Amino acid sequence: MWVIISLCDSGRVMTMAASPYRRENGFSVIEIKLHEVRQLFNSLDPAPFHEKDLEAGAADYIVDSVRDLPSDEPVKLALYLPSANCDRDTARMIEESIHHYFDYRADVTSHELTLTLQQGRTALMIGLAFLFVCIVAQQLIGSMQKPGLLWRTLQEGFQIIGWVAMWKPLNVFLYEWWPIRSKRTLYRKLARVPVELRGY
User: Fold this and answer.
1) CB count, 10 Å around CB of 98?
2) Which residues lie closer than 8 Å to 41 by C-beta, 6 or more apart?
3) CA 174 to chain centre
4) How far apart are CA 75 and CA 24, in angstroms?
5) Rounded Cα gap, residues 145 and 103, in angstroms
6) What pLDDT is stored for residue 3 in this prediction?
7) Do 158 and 136 contact (CB within 8 A), yes or no?
8) Domain positions in the chain
9) What is the CB neighbour count within 10 angstroms for residue 161?
10) Core vs surface per residue 115-151: b (16+ CB within 10 A) or e
11) Tell me, what's the pLDDT at 98?
12) Which ranges of the chain does DSSP label H, i.e. alpha helix?
C-alpha cells in the first residue's frame, strides 16, 4: 500500500510506503517512492546539492518511521526512482546528503542539550540560593514567636515560595533533558543509516 503526500510548495507528488515496514536481511526497511531526486530536497535551499536540507515531509516521515521502531532495530532506507535515475553517482550523492543532513541535526540537538543542561545548572544554583534565603527568613520569623495569622502566613509562605523556586531546575533534570538526548541519538542513527537506490 502507498500513501500519497502532496508537496504543496512545488506542486509535485511524493509517494511513501505505509507501515508495517518490511524486513530485509535483518533490517527494517523504510521505503520512499519518488518521481525525481529533487523531491527529496528543499528546493529553496541554496547550498550545494550534497549539503541541501531534506524536504520537510520526507525528513519527518523518516524520523517518525525510525521513532516507531525499537531503538536497537537496524534500519535501512530504500528510495525508489525511475530506473534511468538509478546510477551509482546518484546513489552516493543521495546517501551523502541524507547523512550530512542528519549529522547536522544531531550537532544542533547536541548544542540544544548542552544549553539546556547549562540553564538547568544555573537555575539550580539560583534556586538553592533563593531556597536558603527563604528558609532563613522562615526561621527568623518563627524565632520572633509573634502570634497571628499574618506572621504564620509569612512563615509558611517563605517555605512554599522557596520550594517553588526549585521547580525550574527540577523540571530540567527530571524531564527536559532526556527527550533531547533521545532525539540526538535518533539523528545520529540516521546519520549512519544505509541508503539504497532502487529502480522501478
Assistant:
1) 23
2) 49, 52, 53, 54, 55, 97
3) 18
4) 10
5) 63
6) 38
7) no
8) 2-108+192-199, 111-183
9) 15
10) ebbeebeebbeebeeebeebeebbeebeeeeeeeeee
11) 94
12) 56-68, 88-144, 149-164, 167-171, 177-190
- The SS3 assignment for 21 reads coil
* Cis previous bond, 20, omega within 30: yes
**57 near 41, Cβ under 8 Å?**
no
What cell numbers appear for 6 in the block? 502532496
pLDDT at residue 11 in the model:
45
What integer best gives the mean pLDDT of the chain? 85
Show the cell assigned to 5: 503526500
Contacts of residue 84, Cβ cutoff 8 Å, sequence gap at least 6: 199
CB 51 within 8 A of CB 98: no
| Amino acid of residue 197 | L
Q: CA 171: distance to chain centroid?
A: 18
**What pLDDT digit, counting tens, does each position of 130-175 carry?**
999 999 998 888 888 777 788 888 888 888 999 999 999 999 999 9
Residue appearing with cell numbers 520572633: 144
Count of CB atoms within 10 A of residue 95's CB? Answer: 18
Which pLDDT score is estimated for 1?
Answer: 37
3-state class (DSSP) for residue 70: coil
Q: Which phi and psi angles does 10 have, rounded to 5°?
A: -115, -10
